[in-house]
């Protein structure tokens, strides 16, 4: 008789070594990813078994059907840390914060510190995170495992991100997740994870087993060393190589006597198939999903009625449950359904009756498994689903009613689970009641994604009564407008609005929120503004709501309307607010008015900013102030008010953290990337910008600043393809949905790129399109990087008169505006025009004024470009020595920034002038160390550039580049260009 051996870890030697290598050398962060049933948990357990005994292992699980309890999986794990903790007198006092969260550790923790002096959710959360960090530090060395991170709440992800930024010295963190089920694809922690220096970081990806792996696994399970390759290949085809499915299929192939097909009656190998095992064609008669169900059916068939009832109860409960809860679902007292289920307090002992016997039998049979903390459930979700589907419908509904009644008696009612059971029981009134309450609770706790998910599910259900859809649609639209996820919500709201069953006021609010969602999260500005405009007629009886819509439309950075139209909308919004006694609404409109003034460079903008109610007692008002400061920061940057932008960012972050407004923090983080580029803080800026783009796949508008910066950095380094792709992604090809200050700057970069490539017609086309958008809008202060580039393109095309007209139009447009950057740009444009006319002294004065203005901001890259222009003019005047000094200074500035192409251009100019290049910094490289020039060449080789292209970027001869490339290959010890990696 053949019996299944314990599940084996097959084909995972490399992954096991990688996992062990990371966790035995903390601090470490290991991400274990793979699909359902692929063996993530089995791999982690195998690694744990090989760890030294002195290491503390803490395990927490995320559940699919979760309650809005942030940080739950981590706290579940920490409850078992008592044995590893020192005396509480040796613990950091901040760990006392955890007393209320971890009552099991209360006697081991210091007293709870006093609450913050003000109601500050952000400060309280930060203190909680510090407490967890300190507790793990004290318990080290610790292996913290968080299973199924794809089901984690946002709070848990935030806490894990905090731990991974600067993990305790003795902590090894391992998280398992399914990549395809993550809320944000590819981002298990919600944001891009960057490996901190000194942290042993690793990603362990589990793929399905190949044919040999399946053969070895099946052979190990059956205790048979020689399974045929043909059988293994067919088994691989039917199971996809997923270990769990392989195990279940192999289990289902055993006959009633526990023998493997192909064995004779005495248990010896027969003659069918290679190696005496089963005929592989036998697998063709069974579909894999059915085999899984049959495997469970086979296991259930040998159970007693008591054990089967316990298994059915566990399947209906879906999540692992304790004995009293399973008992309550299994059997009400005396068989009286009306009396309700048996309910015992959590942790109370089971009376050992027939239901307890049934659970023990199910555990012995391996149908159910014991999970941590006395919870019982299935080995896998697929096993639970197979049992659940086998329960007759009337019995399922009955069990769901019992589960709902039992859960309703708990002190902290699990509303999400109650809603789930009510829906499955057919109690639609209770489903609505619990579902709405669960969404409200999740939103109150800051778990907006869960609240949106719950409301989405209810609205998508055909059983939801027609009259309930309107109120739920409004709730969904309000929540979605402040979240980040949008795709499914947009579809639902559009469908609901198309039915036209909502009352006008409710329809207007829902449409307004849809417009906000499209404009902000979805990046569909044009569509979003159409929805807001369409909402206004339905909001005539709701002036406050209409004012919100008008204030949104009034922001001039969006849409094709001229500035006069935006001013009209702003005036209308202000007039509507007067009649409303609503401080938050007044703050909303005032915040937009202040941002409007700064965006257009109004001289009164800074005065208006001082009127923001930053100290208002209402958290809602302060959230609007935080939004205002984030918008002021963003608006001050294109004007050249960099110090003011930084001050607004500091104020905005403080108020946002105090009031719990996280969205403005994201906005200011994106703005800071553009600000650091302009002010010359380029160190690690590329990495930050890439991380920002990866972090916001659901909210592309938040990434346009980062795309712009990546494009301009690539332009400065001679990476033409990258520059073009990034600059177009910054909004230059979606004019009506673009953030115009950024799009105008990106168009300036594209004009320069075309001119570098010698594509004058393309530069001209980009210039005319971008200038037309700026002219239509009428806000010329956003043209600081567009107009000089456009003037240069027009001059290069021989259109001197048109270039002069553009410069004068620009001058008129910025007259009376407080925009230092635009004023400096005007000097650049006028200098180019004067030089084109041959009036060199005038050109020289313009370029000098531009250089001084950029230095005062400060904007070092702009100052270096102006210095180059000044040097070119001095060369035409015959002043070679002064020109050389200016070019050498510009080359040094470019080199300091990391602007490879620009620095090379300046060195080429110095050679042309007949003066040596700027002094080299550091010693000449020797041996296998690359020189600065060779590093530049190596970087371009790694990008796949040809020698001709490298010569063009670095302003060198082809022969010189040939020599450099040969030296790079020799010093790096490689034979081909494809083996060259970009230098650090």
TrEMBL record:
A single Pfam family it belongs to is AAA_16
Feature: compositional bias, Acidic residues: 266-277
Q: Which GO terms describe its biological process?
A: regulation of DNA-templated transcription
Record key words, sorted: ATP-binding, Nucleotide-binding
Task: Give the matching CDD domains.
Answer: LuxR_C_like
Region of interest: Disordered: 257-283
Source superkingdom: Bacteria
Q: Which residues form the HTH luxR-type domain?
A: 923-984
In terms of InterPro entries, this protein maps to:
AAA_16 (IPR041664), P-loop_NTPase (IPR027417), Sig_transdc_resp-reg_C-effctor (IPR016032), TPR-like_helical_dom_sf (IPR011990), Tscrpt_reg_LuxR_C (IPR000792), WH-like_DNA-bd_sf (IPR036388)
The record's annotation in SMART domains points to:
HTH_LUXR
Answer yes or no on keyword Nucleotide-binding.
yes
Concerning PROSITE patterns, the annotation shows:
HTH_LUXR_1 (PS00622), HTH_LUXR_2 (PS50043)
Molecular function via GO: adenylate cyclase activity; ATP binding; DNA binding
Listed GO cellular component terms? cytoplasm
- Quote the protein name from its UniProt record: AAA family ATPase
Query: What organism is this sequence from?
Result: Nonomuraea rhodomycinica
